[in-house]
Amino acid sequence: MQCLSLSREPGAVDRGDAGATVDIALGVAGGGRLTREGASDDVPQAVVTGRPPAIVYAGLDESGSLSGEFPYFCVSVVVTFDPLAVRHLIRRAASRSGKRLGRPAKNAAEIKWSNASQRVRALALAELAESDVEIFLLTVFKGGRKIEDTPENYGILACEVLSHVWHLYPNVALALDRHFTSAAQVAAVDTLIHRQWPSQGLLSVVHVDSQRNPLVQLADLVAGSVYLDFGQSLL
Q: Which of 166, 168, 174, 205 has the greatest count of CB atoms below 10 A from its CB?
């Protein structure tokens, strides 16, 4: 997977209820535009086929805590036209790791960044890098400040990274990690995202446990790796 980056001067999200101004750095990594048979990387699908752009599938997860003391918070989105192609990616990584160590493979559905071995992490991320996916990353530098973990603050950060998704792919089936549990909180996040989504696009949103959705599970691994990288930079 070729990597690309979008850089900009750090912006700020000023939330009165959070009592803090957050510096934001955004990076995007991926294999260029996603490809589909009969399409060009450089020409939108509507031009190539005469039809509206197809729906892409996206999983979003985060690493870190808005209200925690660690100065960084990371959000990752993994996007693909074909979720079946990466459905068993983590299972394959777990199986290969288990065979090498001569032990049964860990249940792939139970694997998260926080409990995966270094080898499973490396194998999964290496295969993901070779897959036809696009990865969008948002890293928030909080400094020494704590930010209230509210649906509004979370939704604003989700929209910040998703805005770069909907610019390329306005029709999205989006799966979010179940960050909030109450129906009111979930509805608040959904409402904020729907209000920001382009009117010409189509959007569906579900909130799931990361272990139940491969794209969210992969987004968890990506966010965790970035979070760890920033943590090591502070050592």
A: 174
